[in-house]
Design goal:
373 residues, two-stranded antiparallel sheet, 50% helix, elongated, alpha/beta
């Protein structure tokens, strides 16, 4: 019920705001909101200035001058009472200095920072989370002929990635204790197996990644998965995906320390099923697991880190299919094989669940005809 969810959302933020207000009024009665904002922004600007020479740009020099004017006015007017003080004048001087700083950042940093890189910087911190890393070596002896047969039968370019999407969907729907979401410390099972697929795109600021979600991946034929993924990937690469486009301007303008707050809030809202079209927020945008691939880059395997705002328990990485040695009845033979790596959020499962899911995934991908039943 979207209206009910929206009411609860506003009520929750109002409750948090009132609690914060009471906290500062009780323990720090002399602290004003303006003071907190100024100290926070000055700390951020100070670190940035420390890392950049003064003469880097005229905008940065103007920022120094405007910041000096603001601090002088605050010290002389508010702290020492040597001159008349007006909060409105303080806000204007502070806004001018921040605008100069952002102007400099926009023109000196944006060519170095694609939106994807800003997201990575703002989302990931020092590794403290419990992740399980696993790798499956899969025999492609039966799989590759099956893919060729499917291409002939459907006339569509079906790949191993499409098989992995469908196989993961089946494994997730068969494992209800993992196929779900953690919200405020509680586990909520999903009644569908939706798989998010990362799509590589090129933008004016450099390479980027976008997401294409395949809903009901366990139920769809491979041809439908191939068509849907190709269609969504095509829209993303051509800049025609409305939801993705709505999120880009805001993220490209914000500094990284604010992006973290925005993506955390947007990711959390999406994880509870809310939809905010104006911000490009969609319900459960990444499904309950994600798939990406490095096989086309020539890499045999790679372990991908969890993206915090995606809030999925499993991420699978498809490596390259290549000839590798294998043991058959005590003899070493050469076979086509695929290495599939997975990164698992330890909060969702233990070793037993992971082993059962690995067995299912291996069976589906080495004998893909079993997915048709």
């Amino acid at each position: 019920h979207p209206p009910t969810c929206l009411f609860r959302f506003h009520a929750m933020w109002l409750f948090l705001f009132l609690n914060a207000l009471v906290f500062f009024q009780v323990f720090f009665p002399s602290v004003e909101v303006f003071d907190i904002i100024c100290v926070t922004m000055l700390f951020y600007c100070g670190v940035s200035i420390w890392m950049s020479p003064l003469w880097d740009s005229r905008a940065l020099m103007f920022f120094y001058v405007s910041l000096l004017a603001w601090t002088s006015y605050m010290v002389a007017g508010k702290m020492l009472a040597l001159m008349p003080y007006s909060p409105q004048v303080a806000w204007v001087l502070f806004a001018i200095s921040m605008a100069a700083f952002r102007y400099d950042t926009y023109h000196t940093q944006n060519h170095k920072m694609s939106t994807r890189r800003k997201l990575m910087i703002s989302s990931w911190h020092a590794p403290t989370e419990g992740n399980i890393l696993g790798a499956l070596n899969l025999d492609m002896t039966s799989t590759l002929p099956y893919i060729e047969a499917q291409r002939t039968r459907t006339g569509k370019h079906i790949t191993i990635t499409h098989l992995v999407i469908k196989a993961l969907g089946k494994v997730m729907i068969n494992t209800p204790r993992v196929n779900g979401r953690l919200v405020l410390g509680r586990y909520y099972e999903s009644n569908t197996a939706d798989v998010g697929c990362l799509v590589a795109i090129d933008t004016a600021t450099g390479p980027d990644l976008a997401n294409a979600k395949i809903e009901h991946a366990d139920q769809k034929p491979l041809g439908d998965i191939a068509d849907e993924l190709a269609g969504k990937a095509g829209k993303l690469r051509q800049g025609q995906d409305e939801d993705f486009n709505k999120s880009k301007p805001l993220l490209s303008l914000l500094p990284t320390f604010l992006i973290e707050l925005v993506v955390v809030v947007a990711g959390w809202l999406g994880s509870i099923g809310m939809k905010i079209p104006a911000l490009g927020v969609q319900p459960f945008p990444f499904g309950t697991c994600m798939v990406t691939s490095v096989g086309m880059l020539g890499l045999d395997l790679c372990f991908v880190p969890h993206t915090p705002f995606a809030r999925v328990p499993v991420i699978a990485m498809v490596g390259a299919i290549a000839e590798r040695p294998a043991v058959d009845q005590g003899k070493v033979v050469v076979r086509q094989s695929l290495t599939l790596t997975v990164t698992i959020d330890h909060r969702f499962m233990d070793g037993k669940d992971g082993a059962n899911m690995a067995k299912q995934l291996k069976a589906y991908l080495e004998h893909p005809e079993t997915m048709e039943t």
